[in-house]
Description:
The protein contains twelve helices and eleven strands. By secondary structure, the protein is of the alpha/beta class. One of its GO terms (molecular function) is metal ion binding.
Amino acid sequence: MNRVVDVHTHVVPKGWPDLSVEAGGTGWPWLRLDSEREAMIMVGETEFRPIGANCWDPPTRLSDMDDDGVDVQVVSPTPVFFSYERPAAQAIKVARIFNDLTLECATAGGPRLVPFCQVPLQDPDAACAELDRCLAAGHAGVEIGNHVGDRDLDDPGIVAFLRHCAEVGAPVFVHPWDMPDGPRLDRWMARWLTGMPAETHLSVLAMILGGVFDEVPETLRLCFAHGGGSFPFWLGRADNAWHRRGDVVRGGSAFPPSHYIGRFCVDTVVFDPAALRLLVSVVGEDHVLLGSDYPYPLGERPAGQVIRKADFLTDAQREKLLSGNAHRFLGLTGPTPPA
């Protein structure tokens, strides 16, 4: 088997400067260090998420990768740092800070850690410029949030950025973020358990019904997190609506939603072999990539266990999901890097 690749992991580097000084404004994330190996991401004075050394320490990551049988991790930003709601000038500065720190962290881990950058997506020109800077510096691709305020992935500015990604050959990982809240969603982590799948579902539909896949080159390499959210389960509903209520559903799409299967990939953060079976059946065995959401507690450990336990997969299919599809998505070549 080729190198086993986990395309969905996150990093929180240590040592970022005071963002209110560097970028202006208030209420920025900062890191409260509680011990050498434990910290809390703070947003202003509010506790956002407890994290550990596996977020910032390459040796810890590499050890966990060895335990899980993972050769390569794609290391992406944590969405709380996207800053899309900020003025573009501030988001540009923050993106540069975290991209440089992420590159340092990945470089310290050697070739087994593949860094993805973030961009100020609210400003398409600035986003393209930051992507180009990061690719030249050593990043391998870009992670974007699934929307910018009320602008979804069919927004003309975001489409222009995606077209640029296709032109420069940068793979794009789409991660849900900034889910709606309220009394019904603030219990039981419901924003993460229901809001995240719904956000990704909506964004896949936006790319289809908004006509994006009819506009951007087929060379665009795109992967949606968390198994594409609820979209794979409801593809039949979307097709039915496209045919029966095309007057309001078709939007800018030239074909029904199922026509665009094959234009994007999804990861395997679905946990259940039955869900993985549906995913492979709907999206196709060539478009499902190992992802774990490491190192966060709602992720999969050991990474890849749902693939390895899925008895319906042939050996050839399992190799695609663990390795081959990610190699194609990332453009990886060469032998497995040393541990």
